[in-house]
What does this fold into?
Amino acid sequence: MYYLTHLILSMISAIGFGIIFNAPRKALFHCGVVGMAGWFVYIIMIDSGIDVVQAAFSGAFIVAIIGHIMAKRYKTPIIVFIVAGVIPLVPGGTAYDAMRHVVSNDYSNAIPLAMKAFIIASAIAMGLVFAEVFVQFVMKLTKGMKKKGM
Amino acid sequence: MEQLNEQKLIEACLLAGKILMKSGAETYRVEDTMMRMAAACGFNESQSFVTPTGIIFSLEGSDPSQFVRISERGTDLERIAKVNHISRGMAEGKLNTDEAYLALKELESANLSFPIWMQIAAAAIASGSFLIMFKGIWADYIPALLVGGIGFSTFLIVHFQAKVKFFAEFSASFVIGLLGLLAVNYDLGQQLDLIVIASVMPLVPGLLITNAIRDLMAGHFVSGLSKGAEAFLTALAIGAGVAVVYSLWI
It folds into this structure.
């Protein structure tokens, strides 16, 4: 039940972001699916006690892999699919906590939090880039195998 | 005649690049699209230099380079998809330079966005969903939905009136902080932190941050750093808006 709520809500919010970012009408549902998959991986990892950095990395990785598959399939730029999926992973909460400490002049607690937000954001970007490299690698391999088969 | 055609091709390429950059495409996609369009007309050695504020492009050899200025950037995924479609058509030989240029001109002035009320509703529903996804309680769902919706409308209104993006983000997060505080004070909501975080999410520069780091990793250092600066300023504006509320009333 808990995971079902998360699945439905993450899909709704990803479609919402698709509308805000003006994704093509046809791609809205796919945006939702990508967002749902990314968030599902993220929340499962968080709930089983894995660090948020790894979870954000894996979530972004999954988002980008599915995005790549859809981009190939529908001949649409990949960015259309991944933007909405990445948004929930963005460390808004951590950045917010950091900012709250700054406001109350508590800089020594603010800096670790800000650093953490930065690391999470980098982990998301790393996940996206790694997925891209991975997909290109796999495509090269399959192409090479086809050539050898001939 | 030859000269005229080349001129038209350069204009078409620059227009495609400009629309892509304005809509928030990645730097490599902008360069790739322009080079493919040029290659479709037989220019395989075209050169481009793309930054978020301007694009320099030249075909090859002794041809002059041309420059186009980009003053405003947003996120418009449909436009990116459409430009991609046009450049693909050109590469496959379905469109010639003139047709592509006309299609791009039309695309530049077309209004493709969803109606405003739908964007606001989407932002509101996304805020509500985020509250639950961030482990909030269902009692706070409606407050987050309302605060998020009103905050996003504030952003749209101020952005339309003042045309300064950072000020619009600041005002929107100020309104969000204020409304969140009021809601909690009058017992309409319980967890102030979560309500504010969830409502602010539609404003967060997630696309900019990820694009900035991707550009840096791909070796587009100028674009990466300037997009990073824009993302940083946006995050700062959002944080400052909420911070002002807190430092005044908490």
Residues 107-149 of chain A form the longest helix (43 residues). The mean pLDDT of chain A is 87. Chain A has one domain: 2-149. The CA atoms of residues 53 and 119 of chain A lie 7 Å apart.
